[in-house]
Each structure stands twice: as C-alpha cells, then as structure tokens.
C-alpha cells in the first residue's frame, strides 16, 4: 500500500501514537533496498525522554526481529509489518539483522532528536554563514541573561541622558500610582516579550523606533487624553444646558440618576462601572413628573450626547492603558541590544534565539541555502507531539520538508511527512506551541506543493481501564459546552471520545475536602492542610487495595502545591520521588557550604556564622551541648581566635587562605574540612558541578556565586533515580506523555480568573499613535475599548480556557487503573457554583449523573479493588561510588620534556641526546656553556635538578680531544644554518665552524648507534658547502648517549 506524502495522525491520550510512529519508521527502513535508509529519515520529538523512548523502541524492535525466537509483542508487530510491506517474516528477520548491524556502526546518523537539538545542529553547521562565532556555547538559562541585561541598562542611568530621564520619569509614574518604585520588574517583562516568539510579528514594528520617538508619542498621547477629557466636560455641559434651557425639573428624573450621571461627567468623575444610558428606556422618569413630554422629546438628543461621551471615554481609557505600558516598550530595542552584547561577550547563544536566527535566514529565500546541504539527505520526516511545535519552528521546517515531498530519490521513492499530535494536549502556548496550528492542518490547510494528504484518527485507548475511559469521555463531552469558540468546542465534543480496549473495570473517585471552618480557635486546619491530609489518606487506601508506592503518582498544577505535599508526606514517612524532594538547596550539607561562603564573603554575617556553627555542633563534636557550642563560637569576633578555638575541635583551617583560592577550590576545601569524606553525597557532588561551571564560564568569585545562588537555587534538583519503590510527585506539565497505574490529583480547584494575565496587542490607528500595534494589560476593561478590542479580548479568554482544560485533560488521562480527584466545593452561601473555577466542572459532571449533594463529600465510580497483576518490587537503583580525592596543586609536576613521560631506557637516551643537541645550539664557544644552561632552565627544557648532569655532558663534548678545535675562539660559528642549493633543495647542518682561511669544520649530532646513512648526509652537506667556495677540512658525527662517540669521516 502506497503511503500518502503527508499524513496527519490525530492521536488522543493513550492511543498508541509512539507505536504508530515506530511502525511507519520500521516500514520505510525494511522496504528500502539499502540497509542505511535510516540516514534519510529525520524524526523530531519534543523531549529528550521521548527521543530516548523512540530510539530504544526502534532498536529494540529490530533486535527482537533479528532473534530466532522474537517475543510475542515483536511477533505481533512483525505480522502487522508483513501484511503492510508484503515482506515475508524471514525477509523481515534478515533485513533487521543487516540494519541493526549498520545502525550500531553509524549510530550518529540515526537521526531522532528534539527540535531544539536539530535547530542547534543546523546553526552549528552554518555558524560561519550566519555570522556567529564558531565556538559559541548554548545556554538554556535565558532568564539569567535577561536579568543581567536589565541590570546593565539600569546601571547606565546617569551616563545616557535620554535613558536616564526615561528611567526617572518611569520611577516617578510608578510612585505616583502608589506602586513600588522598582522598575526592573517591568523592564524584565518587556525583555520576556523580546524572547518569546509569540510576540515576534508585533515587535518587528518597533525595531526602528528610538527612545526619543517613544517619548514623543507618549507626550502626544498624554496631551490627547487631556484634550479628550475637556471635550467630555463640554458635552456634559451641553446636556445640562438642555435641561436648564427647557426648564426641566431635576426631580422629574427617577431618583435623579440621569442628571447626577451628567454632573459627575461634567466634574470629571466619570466611572465606567456606574450605570450607563444607551437606550430610550434607560432614562427613567418619575410617573408624577409634569414635564414628562418635554423630557421624552429630548431623550434622543441626550442619548446622542452621551454616546459621544462614552466613545470619547473608550478612547481615553485605551490611550491610558497604552500609556501604562509605553515606557517599558520604549526600552525594547535597548534590551535587545544589551542581550546581544552580553551574549557576544560571553560567547553564548540563548536557546530561545535558535528559531529566530533560522527564521530570519530562510525568509524570502525560495531555496534557503541553510537547507541546500541538508535537503538532499533527508527524504522522510516524522514529527511527534506536533501540538507543542511552535509556529516559528514549523515555518522553519516547511521549506526543508517541501523540498523532500516534491521530489523522488534514485529508487523512485517520494519523500513523506508524518505528523502526530493531539491538540487536546497542547499546554505550551506560553512557549509558542499552539493547538490551532494542528486544528488548521487537520482541516483543509496544506503548506506544501504536493496535494497528497491524509488525516487519520487514532481513537482507541490502549492505556486505561474502561471505567476511566468512560469517565473521561463523558466528562470532556460535558465540558465542551464551556466553549464559545467553535473549533475548540468541536475538539472536545467530537474528538475526545475514545473506544475502550479489553481492560474492563477500573475506578474513579471524586472527593471534596470538608468546608474550611473559620473560627477563633487556632487549631483549625487551613485548605492546604486538608488537601495534604486527603492525599495521605488516599495513598493509604490504595496501598490497602494491593498497589505499591511506585504505582502512584500525585499530579499538581503548581510546583508550590507539590512542595507542600512532599514536605507533609516526608514527615509521615512515605517514600517519595520528585524533583522538589531532591532539591539541592534543601540538603543540609549544601546549606552548610552556602553559610560558610556567606561567612567568607563577610565575616560579620552573624546569621551565617550561627548556622554553620549549629551544623558543626550537631555533626562534628560531642564535647559541648549544641547551644553552648554555638554561644562560645559566636563570642569570638577575632577571626584568628575563632580559628584557634575551632582547632580545639579538630577543625583546622585558615579562612583567609580559603578566600584567596578560586571559587571551586574554596568549596572543595570547605567540603574536605567540614564534611565526612567517607560518606557519598549526591547533593554535594551535584553542587560541585554547578560551582565548577560558574567558576569556569563566568570566572565567578564567592560573592558573584552567592548572588547567582540566591536567584537560581530552586531550579536545581538531582535527577530522580528510576527503579525505587516510591510515590512520584510531579507537575502536570512534567507528566505529559507518561502513564501511571494510580493518579491522585489534589488541589483540583484552580481559579482560572486569578491567572497572571498576558498582555494584549491591539491594532492602533497609525495617525493617533505613530504605531500600528500597541501593548496593553489584559483585563475586563479591554472590552470597553471598541469592538475590535473586545474581539481580541474574547479570543484570548477562549484560548486561556482551552489551555486550562487541556491541562486538565492531560492530568485525567495519565491514569491506567485508578483516578482520584480531590477538589473543593467552594459553594457560595446561597449554594451557587463559583465562576471560572475548575471545581465547577466536577460538580456539573456529578450533577449530570444526578449524584451531587453538597453534604456528600465522596463519589465513586467502579470498584476500587486492584485488577492488574502485581509484581513484587525489585529495587534496581544504584548508588554512585564516592570520589574523595581532592586535587593538591603541589602534587602536580609539569613535564618539561617527553623524557619524563616515557619510562624506557632507549627512549630516555634518545630524548636526552635531543635535549643536549638543543642546548648545544646556544653554544658557540666554550664560554657560552653557563649562559646556555641558564637559558634552558628558563625555557623549561631542563629542571634545576638536572643542571649538573647536563653541564657535565656538555663539558665532555667541548673538551673532547677530537672536538676541542670546533669550540675554540676566533672562528665564525653557524648553528643550524640553512643552505639553499641550486636545485632548490635545502640542507641544515647542526654546526659549521668557519676559519679565517675559508676552511670549514662540520659537525652533526646524532643519538642512538652509528648508521651508515648518516655518512651520506654529511657528504651532501660537504658538497653544498664546497660549491659555495669553502673547503671542508673536518667532518664528524657526534653520537650523544651515556658516552660521547665521535666518528670522523
């Protein structure tokens, strides 16, 4: 069966998309006449873990096929492949054997990588063409670069006049607004706009704007706001005049609301939250009013005046919203330039720039040169997790793929592309991954010239038991009604339903924490306590049903919730695995090192001193009670006294000496002095790696490192070991692509309205602003900035809802057998559901099953007994052995010559001979020997200890009866002088001595034993010299070894 050129697989959670990918990949390489067809395939996925899984599945399948008796799983796959490829089982087996052999020998060409790695490879290969330094390093830590850039900009205040004025005005504005005067946060936000590719198109409009131009726009807008406000006052006065002129009694209006409204506008106190008057009936007139008829005649005029007022205020609010953001925006280019400068200075390239660099290059090029060299290599492309591929990454890949889809290779096979994704699992919008991209492709969109395109739905779930699949089907179908956006609604209404597999049963439990009682009593538990308690109870319940710790995962939406759970469960003695529990900064030993570094930086930092004394008191001494030990140490303010006192507890060190060392050596010394070297400690080892990297890359000193640590400590954790029997805790984002027998999802009551809002880009009138796009804060008020703004706002709101529901989808589809959701009812006093809260989804679902009752806290679906066959847990984790050797610089010897490195006698003799030969080139007469030896010690040819031996050998040569004449004074000496002969060949005798009467004495130094070929060499030298009109009267070979041998020729 012919594969389509472009196939799209819409694969819901657990539907075996990796299986589908691997199967298609295997088809291509098995059918190909060559054994290295894998060289022409590029498979791209999202995470390193997924890369590893895909590689191991492909290699694993091939090696199973190659065996005499493949496993039953592999046999099923072989049958499938045999039907699809029309190859016999024997053919598949032989071909697999050949391919596997080939892959092992050319593993680097087996190209399955993450998109960033692929981009990196392209940029690295074309660094020269892209005007990048060839040796750039990649940094993942964009945030730190940004902080450095912002600090550098603020530090320029006082140097650059325009910038200084701008920063001062900004600070003043913020203090007038009663906000903190620290402006670095806003500038950081702006910097994030630069780095986030979601804003790429908008930012291009600002590239050529200078700070001065922004200031001009700002002043123009401020002026415009004042003028417009004056206008509204004039309009209000017109309306009041109408009332006055027509002799209308203000009391005729119901409760006087209408005239009050106009008066408040006239006084400049308009509040958009108050009642507005748009319709005829909005203006209420008292039933008893005598002038009712006159008023009714004037209402259209009033409404007309007011509509002018309202539209003017829309404009004013829009301008003001932009004015709030204009100052940070005016620094866009300053931040960009500063970032570029820092990256150039440090020779690094931030990973966030990769896509942009390629994008800039391939724009407007029909056949981008970047891909010219790659284009012919890749014929087949696979993209996994397509919903996480950002727009820019996809645009960058299109030309490369288009080239492959348009042509055929030598065997007439056309290029293909297979993309697999699930827009319901698109949870990376903040880094450019958009569900809409996949939705568009799965409709009619096709960016390629080749029209051959097919869409397949993988709608059978192989992961979960039927109860969980059915729950998710019903639950997400119900949620689809939350969407107003038709595409999103369709996604959950028609594409979230999955068929079940043969695993029937399973268990879903939705529970709510009891209402948080607010009483005077201190003992009441707060919400977090109730959640962690409920989580612990759930774990204990599943253990009773036969599950083990390693079967359970706890998913949280935020890291802070994970940390709260981890802390509580650790106290309760539950074994855990999570990046939070493995945080480096939480390890006591690392804390000790940090406290000591703080003390070294500033010896009057008493808090750090007390902290490290407490560690010593507990771990390194038993003479004194802890408190007394700390008190004694704290009382010693002189560092020398303090060091002496520490000596009495067997801790000997000089703080001053440590301060002189490099950062890494200082930390190593601390570890050697204070920590037990016999016990391996992964935290300390990992911490040392971080220190080393900072030391090498940034030449950081102690205080630089401490600043870095303050900002970044919480990012570092030890990679969690696989194979331990422990409960896993992870964020939903981390769990993507994984599966677990039991999923517990506490804190299921996220308030979606509290999310930090992104800013919005709105189109602006070029003549008003001098800018085509403006940036404003995202808030309900935007709906009042006109129709277009309201549309942008509502679209954004729908996108946020989709992203939140997608996160929920990922969480609820990780479970294989049991799913526990722990939420909170959050009902109002009237029993109403909260708006914009995840908990209302669960309550609505229970309602639809007519089960919900606000006094019932737990709802069960299915049977909670364990169904899957349990295996006894075998701990496969390994401990890394400890490396306790510390480098002592005194133990390092610098090898002056190779002779010190090689041990053989013969080699030593040759090296020694060469060494003497080199020193002799400094010697013209007997008097030069001392200078020559001093010179060779300085040049590192010999060490001071070897001086005497060398001196004796040289003396032996120059005083040798045969050679004395060659070192006598009064002659011209040429050491290693090149002679160019007529034929263009050159010769270089070691020593020529020219006497006054044009006679030449010729010496050549050799090592080893006498060899006849050297004779010929000397004959050549003699011929060359005699052709120049000299007479050679003596020629000798000097063999330098343990003894000196002279061979006269």
Question: Major β-sheet, in short?
Answer: 7 strands, mixed
The helix/strand class is: alpha/beta
Gross morphology is globular
Q: What percentage of amino acids are in beta strands?
A: 5-15%
Largest beta sheet: strand ordering: 11-12-10-13-16-9-17
Helix content: 40-55%
Compose a concise summary of this entry.
The chain is α/β, with parallel strands linked by helices and 1049 residues long.
Polypeptide structure, described:
The N and C termini lie far apart (86 Å). 48% of the residues lie in helices and 11% in strands. The protein has 37 helices and 24 strands. A seven-stranded mixed beta sheet has the order 11-12-10-13-16-9-17, sandwiched between helices. A six-stranded parallel beta sheet has the order 3-2-6-7-1-8, with helices on both faces. A five-stranded mixed beta sheet has the order 18-21-22-23-24. With 1049 residues, it is an alpha/beta fold.
Structural features:
48% helix, 24 strands, globular, seven-stranded mixed sheet, 1049 residues, alpha/beta
Lay out the secondary structure.
Layout: E1 6-11, H1 17-31, E2 41-45, H2 48-66, H3 72-85, H4 89-105, E3 112-114, H5 115-125, E4 137-139, H6 142-155, H7 161-176, H8 184-195, H9 200-203, H10 211-245, H11 257-266, H12 292-330, H13 332-346, E5 348-350, H14 354-362, H15 369-375, E6 380-383, H16 391-406, E7 416-421, H17 435-442, E8 453-458, H18 466-479, H19 486-494, E9 507-512, H20 527-544, E10 552-556, H21 559-571, E11 576-577, H22 588-601, H23 606-619, H24 626-635, H25 639-647, H26 655-660, H27 663-674, H28 682-698, H29 702-712, E12 727-731, H30 732-735, E13 740-745, E14 759-763, H31 766-769, E15 773-777, H32 787-812, E16 815-823, H33 838-848, E17 858-862, H34 905-920, H35 929-938, H36 947-958, E18 972-975, E19 979-980, E20 986-987, E21 991-994, E22 999-1006, H37 1012-1027, E23 1031-1040, E24 1044-1048
Parallel strand pairs: 1-7, 1-8, 2-3, 2-6, 4-5, 6-7, 9-16, 10-12, 10-13, 11-12, 13-16, 22-23
Antiparallel strand pairs: 9-17, 14-15, 18-21, 19-20, 21-22, 23-24
């Amino acid at each position: 069966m012919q594969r389509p050129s472009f196939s799209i697989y819409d694969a819901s959670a657990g539907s075996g998309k990796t299986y589908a990918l691997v199967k298609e990949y295997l088809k291509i390489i098995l059918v190909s006449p060559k054994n290295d067809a894998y060289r022409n395939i590029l498979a791209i996925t999202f995470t390193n873990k997924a890369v590893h899984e895909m590689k191991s599945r492909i290699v694993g399948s091939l090696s199973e096929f190659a065996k005499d008796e493949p496993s039953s799983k592999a046999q099923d796959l072989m049958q499938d492949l045999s039907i699809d490829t029309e190859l016999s089982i024997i053919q598949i087996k032989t071909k697999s054997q050949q391919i596997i052999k080939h892959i092992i020998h050319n593993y680097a060409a087996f190209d399955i990588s993450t998109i960033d790695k692929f981009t990196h490879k392209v940029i690295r290969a074309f660094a020269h063409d892209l005007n990048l330094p060839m040796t750039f390093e990649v940094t993942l830590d964009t945030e730190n670069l940004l902080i450095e850039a912002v600090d550098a900009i603020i530090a320029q205040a006082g140097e650059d006049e325009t910038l200084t004025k701008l920063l001062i005005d900004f600070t003043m504005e913020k203090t007038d607004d009663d906000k903190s005067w620290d402006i670095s946060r806003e500038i950081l936000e702006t910097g994030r706009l630069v780095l986030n590719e979601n804003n790429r198109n908008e930012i291009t409009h600002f590239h050529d704007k200078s700070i001065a131009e922004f200031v001009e726009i700002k002043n123009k807008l401020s002026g415009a706001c004042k003028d417009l406000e004056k206008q509204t006052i004039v309009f209000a006065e017109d309306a009041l005049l109408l009332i006055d002129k027509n002799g209308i009694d203000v009391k005729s209006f119901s409760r006087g609301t209408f005239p009050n409204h106009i008066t408040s506008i006239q006084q400049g106190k308009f509040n958009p939250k108050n009642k507005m008057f748009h319709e005829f009936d909005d203006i209420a007139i008292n039933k008893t009013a005598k002038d009712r008829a006159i008023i009714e005649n004037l209402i259209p005029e009033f409404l007309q005046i007011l509509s002018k007022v309202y539209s003017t205020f829309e404009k004013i609010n829009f301008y003001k919203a932009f004015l709030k953001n204009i100052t940070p925006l005016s620094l866009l280019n300053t931040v960009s330039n500063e970032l570029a400068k820092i990256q150039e200075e440090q020779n690094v390239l931030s990973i966030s720039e990769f896509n942009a660099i390629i994008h800039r290059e391939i724009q407007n090029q029909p056949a981008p040169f970047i891909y010219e060299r790659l284009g012919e290599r890749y014929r087949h492309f696979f993209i996994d997790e397509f919903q996480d591929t950002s727009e820019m990454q996809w645009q960058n890949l299109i030309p490369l793929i288009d080239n492959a889809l348009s042509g055929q290779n030598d065997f007439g096979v056309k290029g293909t592309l297979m993309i697999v994704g699930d827009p319901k699992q698109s949870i990376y919008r903040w880094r450019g991954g958009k569900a809409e991209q996949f939705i568009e492709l799965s409709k009619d969109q096709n960016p390629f010239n080749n029209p051959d395109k097919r869409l397949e739905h993988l709608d059978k779930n192989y992961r979960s038991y039927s109860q969980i699949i059915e729950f998710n089907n019903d639950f997400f179908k119900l949620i689809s009604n939350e969407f107003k956006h038709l595409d999103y609604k369709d996604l959950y209404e028609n594409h979230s339903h999955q068929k079940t597999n043969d695993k029937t049963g399973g268990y879903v439990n939705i529970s709510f924490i009891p209402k948080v009682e607010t009483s005077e009593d201190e003992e009441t538990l707060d919400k977090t306590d109730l959640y962690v308690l409920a989580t612990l109870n759930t774990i204990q319940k599943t253990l009773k049903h036969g599950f083990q710790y390693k079967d359970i995962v706890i998913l949280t939406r935020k890291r802070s919730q994970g940390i709260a759970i981890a802390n509580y469960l650790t106290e309760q003695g539950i074994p855990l695995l999570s990046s939070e529990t493995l945080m480096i900064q939480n390890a006591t030993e690392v804390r000790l090192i940090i406290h000591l570094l703080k003390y070294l930086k500033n010896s009057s930092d008493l808090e750090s001193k007390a902290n490290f004394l407490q560690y010593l008191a507990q771990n390194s001494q038993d003479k004194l009670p802890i408190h007394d030990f700390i008190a004694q140490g704290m009382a010693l303010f002189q560092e020398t006294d303090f060091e002496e006192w520490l000596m009495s507890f067997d801790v000997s060190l000089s703080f001053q000496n440590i301060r002189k060392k490099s950062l890494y050596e200082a930390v190593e010394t601390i570890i050697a002095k204070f920590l037990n070297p016999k016990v391996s400690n992964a935290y300390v080892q990992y911490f040392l790696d971080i220190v080393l990297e900072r030391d090498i890359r940034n030449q950081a000193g102690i205080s630089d490192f401490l600043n870095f640590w303050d900002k970044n400590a919480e990012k570092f954790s030890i990679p969690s070991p696989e194979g331990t029997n422990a409960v896993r805790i992870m964020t939903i984002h981390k769990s993507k692509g994984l599966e677990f027998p039991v999923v517990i999802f506490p804190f299921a009551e996220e308030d979606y309205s509290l999310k930090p809002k992104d800013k919005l880009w709105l189109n602006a009138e070029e003549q008003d602003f001098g800018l085509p796009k403006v940036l404003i804060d995202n808030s309900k008020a935007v709906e009042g900035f006109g129709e277009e703004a309201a549309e942008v706002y509502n679209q954004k709101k729908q996108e946020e809802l989709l992203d939140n529901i997608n996160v929920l989808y990922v969480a609820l589809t990780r479970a294989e057998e049991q799913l526990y959701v722990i939420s909170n009812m959050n009902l109002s006093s009237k029993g109403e559901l909260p708006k914009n809260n995840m908990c209302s989804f669960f309550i609505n679902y229970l309602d639809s099953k007519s089960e919900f009752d606000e006094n019932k806290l737990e709802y069960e679906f299915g049977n909670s007994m364990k169904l899957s066959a349990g295996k006894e847990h075998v701990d496969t984790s390994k401990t890394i052995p400890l490396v306790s050797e510390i480098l002592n610089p005194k133990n390092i010897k610098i090898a002056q010559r190779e002779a010190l490195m090689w041990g053989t006698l013969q080699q030593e003799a040759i090296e020694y001979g060469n060494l003497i030969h080199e020193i002799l080139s400094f010697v013209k007469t007997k008097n030069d020997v001392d200078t020559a030896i001093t010179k060779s010690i300085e040049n590192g040819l010999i060490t001071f200890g070897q001086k005497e031996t060398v001196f004796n050998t040289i003396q032996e040569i120059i005083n040798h009866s045969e050679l004395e004449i060659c070192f006598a004074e009064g002659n011209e000496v040429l050491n290693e002088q090149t002679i160019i002969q007529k034929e263009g060949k050159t010769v270089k005798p070691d020593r020529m001595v020219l006497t006054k009467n044009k006679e030449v004495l010729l010496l050549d130094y050799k090592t080893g034993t006498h060899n006849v070929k050297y004779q010929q060499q000397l004959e050549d030298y003699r011929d060359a010299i005699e052709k120049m009109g000299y007479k050679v009267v003596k020629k000798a070979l000097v063999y330098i070894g343990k003894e000196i041998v002279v061979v006269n020729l």
